């Protein structure tokens, strides 16, 4: 029997939430020459965001890339794009991915506070410690070693949260300092959050410790239910020591079709048509980043070629099959402590609509049956 982490009972009683990767960079969500009916333009993304919030999505995550890399030739900046999507929607929460080291935390805190006021409390951030060295060095910024990048990110989060919640913000760290600073206006306070939610991701020991100490949400790369259980247990142990609670999301690439064979045929075609040079270049870059950890334990360290075709290991989560199979798989993750799925798709408009029409109703039926069974 697999060891499962202790799960906060509220996780089981609350409905699963769903986010999608915003295609604000070119190339789609798989590094493959297969047709991907998606578009990185704002007009397309505005249409997609409205469709997503009408098909059960709670969040959207705008990616951050600054230069061409591994199939992403063009990129829209994440914070500006996120605000544009917030203005185009009514309920969707939009998470902007940001890099410490390329943002001053005080400027970022001010920017997000404004976006949060404009959107009536729907802005959030995903703090990305960084794996792509060229994004820093080609901008003339220093590239820190793995552990130092996470130490800087942790201070960045503490700084931003202090500004958002204190009238006389103070912080004295190794990377950042605050001296009696009062940011006004503050972000909106809503019943479900005291400030814009702070997401972060990773897999390394450094990432797990940081997540437990300072994050509101911990994003995990795609992984098996057992692999996710291990991460949830580690992060939760740290959070408990610090008197905190962290919520968990997992990345998954969803291929829903009316038969299991159709879904797996699509997956096979994606991998067969992979852009081998781009995938191998990406794999080399990210594995080097992970190997630089103190214990050699980082994201992508056990990823195979096929996993890397979806650059956040989305295939490994196993959301591939019929609506019933996908919904059942999602409930397995929920029982282990997952509250949110961050989803990518091959053909965004069609697949988001398919998810809302075919998959989500089954998820809700299974959740209701589970509540009735345990309640």
UniProtKB/TrEMBL annotation:
| Record carries keyword Oxidoreductase | yes
Q: What are its GO biological-process terms?
A: alkanesulfonate catabolic process
> One MF term in GO for this entry?
alkanesulfonate monooxygenase activity
Question: What InterPro entries does UniProt report for this protein, alphabetically?
Answer: DMSO2_SphG, Luciferase-like_dom, Luciferase-like_sf, SsuD_RutA_monooxygenase
Q: Which Pfam families match?
A: Bac_luciferase (PF00296)
Keyword terms of this UniProt record = Flavoprotein, FMN, Monooxygenase, Oxidoreductase
What NCBIfam families does the record point to? LLM_DMSO2_sfnG
- What is the protein's given name? Dimethyl sulfone monooxygenase SfnG
């Amino acid at each position: 029997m697999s060891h499962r982490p202790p799960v906060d009972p509220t996780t089981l009683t609350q409905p699963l939430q769903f986010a999608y990767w915003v295609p604000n960079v070119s190339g789609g969500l798989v590094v493959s020459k297969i047709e991907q009916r998606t578009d990185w333009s704002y007009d397309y993304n505005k249409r997609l965001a409205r469709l997503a919030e009408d098909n059960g999505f709670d969040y959207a995550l705008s990616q951050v890339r600054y230069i061409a890399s591994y199939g992403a030739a063009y990129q829209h900046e994440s914070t500006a794009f996120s605000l544009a999507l917030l203005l185009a929607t009514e309920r969707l929460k939009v998470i902007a991915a940001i890099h410490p080291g390329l943002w001053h935390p005080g400027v970022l805190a001010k920017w997000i506070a404004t976006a949060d006021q404009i959107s009536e409390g729907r802005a959030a951030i995903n703090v990305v410690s960084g794996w792509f060295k060229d994004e820093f060095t080609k901008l003339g910024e220093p590239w820190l070693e793995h552990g130092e990048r996470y130490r800087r990110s942790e201070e960045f989060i503490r700084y931003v949260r202090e500004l958002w919640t204190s009238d006389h913000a103070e912080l004295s760290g190794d990377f950042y300092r605050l001296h009696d600073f009062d940011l006004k206006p503050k972000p909106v306070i809503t019943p479900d959050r005291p400030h814009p939610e702070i997401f972060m991701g990773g897999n390394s020991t450094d990432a797990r410790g940081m997540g437990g100490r300072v994050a509101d949400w911990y994003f995990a790369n795609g992984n098996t239910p057992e692999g996710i259980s291990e991460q949830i247990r580690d992060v939760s142990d740290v959070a408990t020591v610090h008197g905190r609670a962290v919520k968990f999301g997992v990345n998954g690439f969803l291929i829903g079709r009316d038969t299991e064979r159709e879904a797996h045929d699509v997956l096979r075609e994606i991998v067969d048509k992979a852009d081998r040079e781009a995938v191998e270049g990406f794999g080399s870059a990210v594995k080097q980043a992970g190997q630089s950890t103190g214990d050699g334990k980082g994201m992508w360290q056990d990823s195979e070629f096929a996993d890397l075709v979806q650059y956040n290991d989305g295939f490994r989560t196993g959301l591939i099959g019929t609506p019933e199979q996908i919904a059942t798989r999602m409930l397995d993750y929920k029982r282990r402590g997952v509250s949110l799925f961050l989803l990518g798709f091959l053909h965004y408009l069609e697949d988001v609509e398919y998810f809302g029409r075919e998959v989500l109703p089954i998820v809700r039926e299974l959740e209701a049956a589970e509540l009735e069974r345990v309640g």
